[in-house]
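Re: the request from the purification team.
They wanted to know what the chain is likely to look like in 3D before they choose a buffer screen. I agreed to run a prediction and write the result into the notebook, where they can find it.
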Amino acid sequence: MSLEGEFALVTGGSRGIGRGIALKLASHGARVAVHFFQNHEAADETLRGIRKNGSDGFVVQGDVRRTEDVIAIVDRARTEFGALDVFASNARPEVPEFFQAPFDITVEQWNTAFQSQATAFLVASQSAARLMRDNGRIIAITYGAGSKTGGLQPWVGMGSAKAALEALVRYVAVALARRGITVNAVSPGWTEDSVLNTLPTQVQDLIRGWHTRGWTPMGRLGTPADIGNVVGLLCQEDAGWITGQVIYADGGASLMNPEVPSEIQLLQPAAV
């Protein structure tokens, strides 16, 4: 896989999954624009990692909840690169800004979730498509479990926003298909150095224990590098026939049956 001579923009690229994506793309030769909202130091650290991987790029600040900022982020890529080959939409607000149950969430919190996800992706895709060369790649980071279930009640705003994002991925995929531009969503499971680490320690321990005991068949949580690897695969020329899909990158967690205890599901046959 080589992305030599290609240009990428990763929103929320300063930390966690976004950093994993940025570093993966850079390791294969792409120059990467690293978007951040508030943590300039973290964005600079990602840029240093990009340069350590033998590539280059720049950092760009903006609030993806604001339409004018989203347009400005893509315009900066236009100024610095002149073209775009990969756009990865990863940015999200911090958990306290949207994490409320259905009858507690405010309209402002609801709008924060939607503006940062579906609306930001629509606006960015409109701008990026005009800058993107044919056969480019657009990738949105979603959370498929949150968009299809309702058990984690305070996730209602972000889960609904991610569901809208996934629908939008399909529409944009059809719109850009004739240009060979693929549009897909990647759905990570619980991942270290991500939203997980913003939760109370006790909650983190419960989640890690649940997954390492078997809810994730591979017996561990994901890492930003794991998700970066999946995005990297979708950016390969050989992935040009995959579009409009939600790719689950979760070590098999989405394969588990919630109606059956994981201990039973993981029983091994007596002989193979």
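For the purification team: The domain at 7-194+224-254 is CATH 3.40.50.720 (Rossmann fold).
Please add any questions underneath this entry.
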